[in-house]
Amino acid sequence: MSKKIVVIGGSAAGPKAAARAKRLDPGAEVTIIQKAPEMSMASCGYPYFVGGLFNNRNALLSTPYGEVRDPHFFVNTKGIKARTETEVMSIDRQRRTVQCRDLTSDALDEVPYDKLIIATGARARKPPLPGIDLDGVTTLQSMRDADFLRRIRDEGAIKKAVVIGGGLIGIETCEALQLSGIDITVIEMLPQILMFLDWELAKVLENHVRSKAANVITDVKLAGFIGENGRLTAVRLENGTELPCELAVLAIGVAPNTDLAQAAGLEIGTTGGILVDEYMQTSDPDIYAVGDCVELVHRITGKKTRAPFGDLANLEGRVAGENAVLGNSVTFPGTFHTGICKVFDFNAGSTGLSESRARQEGFENIVTVINASLDKPEFMGAKLLISKMVVDGTTGRILGLQCAGPGDVGKQISMAAVALLGKLKVADVVNADLPYAPPFSLAIDHFIATAHLMENKLKGLLKGIGAVELKEKLDKGETPFLLDVRTPGEYDMMRLGIGETLIPIGDLRHRMDDLPSDKNREIICYCKISLRGYEAAILLEAEGWENVKVLEGGVMAWPYRREK
Amino acid sequence: MSKKIVVIGGSAAGPKAAARAKRLDPGAEVTIIQKAPEMSMASCGYPYFVGGLFNNRNALLSTPYGEVRDPHFFVNTKGIKARTETEVMSIDRQRRTVQCRDLTSDALDEVPYDKLIIATGARARKPPLPGIDLDGVTTLQSMRDADFLRRIRDEGAIKKAVVIGGGLIGIETCEALQLSGIDITVIEMLPQILMFLDWELAKVLENHVRSKAANVITDVKLAGFIGENGRLTAVRLENGTELPCELAVLAIGVAPNTDLAQAAGLEIGTTGGILVDEYMQTSDPDIYAVGDCVELVHRITGKKTRAPFGDLANLEGRVAGENAVLGNSVTFPGTFHTGICKVFDFNAGSTGLSESRARQEGFENIVTVINASLDKPEFMGAKLLISKMVVDGTTGRILGLQCAGPGDVGKQISMAAVALLGKLKVADVVNADLPYAPPFSLAIDHFIATAHLMENKLKGLLKGIGAVELKEKLDKGETPFLLDVRTPGEYDMMRLGIGETLIPIGDLRHRMDDLPSDKNREIICYCKISLRGYEAAILLEAEGWENVKVLEGGVMAWPYRREK
Predict the structure, then answer these.
(1) Does the pTM exceed 0.90?
(2) Where in the sequence of chain A do the CATH 3.30.390.30 domains occur?
(3) Domain B4-122+255-326 class, CATH top level
(4) What confidence tier does B6 reach under pLDDT thresholds 50, 70, 90?
(5) Does A326 touch chain B (CB under 8 A)?
(6) Chain A: closest CA distance from residue B396 (Å)
(7) Fewer CB atoms < 10 Å away: N or C end of chain A?
(8) A334 contacts in B (CB within 8 Å)?
(9) What DSSP line would sit under A310-334, residue for residue?
(10) Minimal CA–CA distance to B90: which of B134, B60, B120, B58?
(11) Residues spanned by CATH 3.40.250.10 within chain B?
C-alpha cells in the first residue's frame, strides 16, 4: 500500500519536503495543505516587488521558467496533491489524521497520514499596543501584506511612514518604501540596527541609510499608534515623541507558528520553536517539522537557536522529506546564522558569531580585526568592503565574519560560510588559492587580506585599535597622538577632526621631529582604510616608538560623526 | 649587525617578500633588484589597459591610493632599497653575493646577502619558428608589450590580428584587441581553448567568443610567420593555411626564468621550475625562491606542478620573506590551480581537478555532474551559470569545480576553492548555510544545487548523461528517445534538432501514449537547463520506464551546433 505523506504548509520548506518525498518514493501519496491562496511564495522577494524593482507579481510565485506554482502545477509536474485555502485545525496523533477546514466553503474533512511534516512557518510579531489594529498598521510577512504595500506604492497617496524595527526585514522594507517616494523613519529599540552585525559595522550602515534621506532613530521604544476615524495618523514613542505618519510597518521579528504542534502535545524547545532532532523529527516519530516553526542547532555553539531563513527552510525540507519516506537516513547539521541584505547602495552580511555574540556565548580569548579594502583593483571599478573577522585566539579557529559596504559582500560571506563549514583556522585562509583576475578581485583577495591582518594581530605584529575603543579613550579625556597619514587633498575632502596631526606617509620618514619625543607616548595611525596607517605604524616602530597602534578600518570604518 | 636580504625581481612576489621581511625585521637591510624600469606592475591588468577599459597607465603601477610604486615609494614608505633597470648577472653562493649590471650605465657591482630571494618570474614562450622576429610579432608579458599593444589600439591602423594560444592570456588578449576594433582570429593547437576547463565547458565559451565576431580555430599548429620588409603580413599554419594579419600575439604559455638559479647550481624541479620546499627554500638554505619561477605542490595530487598566478606569487613572497628573516617558520601549502577569467560577457573559472585532469592523475571512481541554473531569481536580473563538479565517488570528496557563463562565476569558484581547502565532501555542501537574499542568490544557491545534483547522482537517483556521451551515441547510430520538455515557444526560439520529441512538462502526465511503449527503451530528457528535464525523468520512472536519463545542463550546456 502506498505511504501517505501529509505536509502542513505550502510556502518554502513544505513544498520542498513534499517534492523530495515524492521523488524518493514515487508511489507515495503526498499532500500539501496550505492555508494561504498562494503556494511557494518567494517571500524574500516581497520588498523588491513593493519597491518596484519588478512589477510582475507572478514572478514571486513562479518557477524559473515562468510557470505559476499552483495546485495544478504540483499535480501535473510533481504528482503532488496540493490544497490551498485549507486550514489544518488539529492533529490527531493517535489516529494519525489531520482535521482540515476549507476556508472558502467552511467544509470540514479529515486527512490520514503515515508520516506528517509540519511546516507552519512563523508570523510577524504584533505586540498588543494601543492602536495596533488601526488601518495603516501592517507587517510585511504575507503575500497579502506585499500586495497591500505595493498598492500603496502604485497609488502614491501616502507621504510618511514609520518602519518599526531595524532588522533585516525592517531595513529592506525601509528601502522599498523610500524607493516608492515615501518619507521614512526607522525606529529601533536597541542601540543599533541590523543586530547580526557588531555595533561599529551597523553604524556604518545606519549612516548610509541616513544618507539616503531615510531617518533612523535607535534606542527608542514604541508606545503605540494614534489614529483618527480608525486610520493611523502617528506612531507614539515611549519618550513621548509622536511621529506623524499614514503607514507603519511592524518588523520586530517573527514568532514560530507552533499552535498546532503544541495542541497535539509535541515538545516545544527552549527557544520557542518546535523541538526536532538532527533528522528533523519531532518528539513523535511519525511527525517531522521544518522551516521557520522549528528550532535548530547552532553549528559553532552547539546550542539551540532559531534561524527563520528561506534557504535553510528549503534544505530542512529536503532532509525531512527524505527521512519521512526512507526512514531516518539523512541529517540536518544546523545553522551558522548566515545572512545578507541589500541596504540601498551597500550590502551587509554575516556568518558565524559576531564579537558581541561570541562574548555572550562565553568565548574567553576572542580576537577581532577590521579590514577595509577594495573588492577589486581601482582601475576595474573597485568598491569598498569593510570586514570584521572574529577568531578564537586560543585555537585560531574562525568564529565569524561580518562584511559591509558597496562592494561584493556576497562573495566574502559565502567564502567565510564555507570556511566555517570546514572549521578552518586563520592559518588555513592566509594561503588560500582563490580565483584571481582583475575583473573579480585584488591579487590578494579581501578575504585573504582580512586573514593576513588577523594573523599579524595573533602574532603581535599588528596592534589594532577599534573605533569604539578609541572613542572611549577620547571621551575619557585621554590624549593619544593621532596620526592621519593621508594626503592634504584627502584630508581636505574628508576628516575625522578628533585632534589628529596630518603627515602624509611619504613624508613621514623626514618629519620624525613632528612626532612625540616621548617614545612611550601612545600613537594611533590611520588613513582612509588603514593600509597606509599600518605602513606608518611599522615605520614608527622601526624608529623606536614603543606604543603604536593602527585604527582599524581607518576613516571609512569610523562609525561616528566626522568633522567633514 | 643588520641582516642583508636581497630580492631579485620587483614584480609581484619579490616586493611582497621584501616588504614582509622588512616588516618582521625592521633592522634588516632589504634590497630589491629589478631589471625592468617599472616595479610592482599589476601585470594581470595589462589586457584591460590594452582593451581600453581604463586609460591611466599609472594605475597599473600604483597603490590603491594612487601613489606610483617606484624606488622612491619603496624607500620612503617601506624603508626598502629598490634598484630598477639593474640586471643580476650571477649569484656567488660561496661568497653570498650577487653580481649586478646597471642597464643604463653598464656599471657593474656586487651586492652581498645573508639571505637571497629569487623572484625572477617567467617569460612568454617564443618558439624558434620562421619569422618570429618580424615586426608585428609580440607577446603580452611585459609592461613594454602592454605599451606596444595599447599604442596599436590608440593608433587604430591595424585591422587584423592573430592570437596564438587559446589559454587564459590568449583569450584575454583576444577580447582586448577585439574591443579595440581589430579583427581577431585565435588559433589553438589543442582541441579546445581554456584547458583548465573540460572540453564541453570550453566549447560553450568558444561559441561565445565566436558570437563576439572573433574567430577561433582549434586543432591547428602554427608553422611560422610571413612578412614583407621585415613586417608581419600573415601567420602560416602547418596545414598550409595563411591567415593575413598585421599583428600576431603569442600566448602559448610561460617558461620559468631559471637561468640564474641554474647557473648558480640550485636544483631545478621535474616541471622545470626552481625546486623549493614548503618553506619556499631552495636547495641552498640561504636562498629562497618564489613566484612564477618555482614549482609548487598540487594540493590534491601531491605532485609537483607550476602555477604562475599573480595571487599565489604574492602569498609565496609573504612566506619566503618571513622565513628569510625569522628562520623557517611558516609554510606555503601549494596550489589548487584556481583560476578565473573574463571572456567578453561570460566568465570562466576553475579550481581543483577537471575531469580530464583527474583521469590523467589516475583517480578511478570519478563522478561528475553538470548543473546549469541561474545565479539569482529571474526577477532580480538573473544570469546563467553552468558548473561541472568533479568528485571522488569512493570518498565523496570534492576534487574540483568548473563554472562558466554570464553569471557570478567568481563567487562559485571562490566557495569551491574554500571547500577544497577544507577537504569538504558533497555531503558537507548539500546543507551549507550560505548567505541568501534575492539580490545575491537563489534560495538554494547554485553551488548547493550543484552539490544536490551530485548527491542524487551518487545515490543513484539521477542518471545523467553528458552532452559528449549523448553525441557519441547519436554519431554511432544509436536512437535513444529524446524528450524535450520545454514549451512550444521555447522550442521555436532555440532547439537542438537531434531528433527530439517535444512534450511540455505540464502535459507529460497526459501524453504517456506519445512515449515509447517499450519500457526498457532509453529515454533522455532535457529542457533549457534540465531542471524540468529532471522532473520529467522522475515522472517517467514513476510510470515504469526503466532506462531514463537526464541530459546534464540541457540546451544551455550543449556544446555542439544547435539546429536553432
Answers:
(1) yes
(2) 350-458
(3) alpha beta
(4) very high
(5) no
(6) 15
(7) N
(8) 433
(9) HHHHHHHHHHHHHHHHH-S------
(10) B120
(11) 464-557
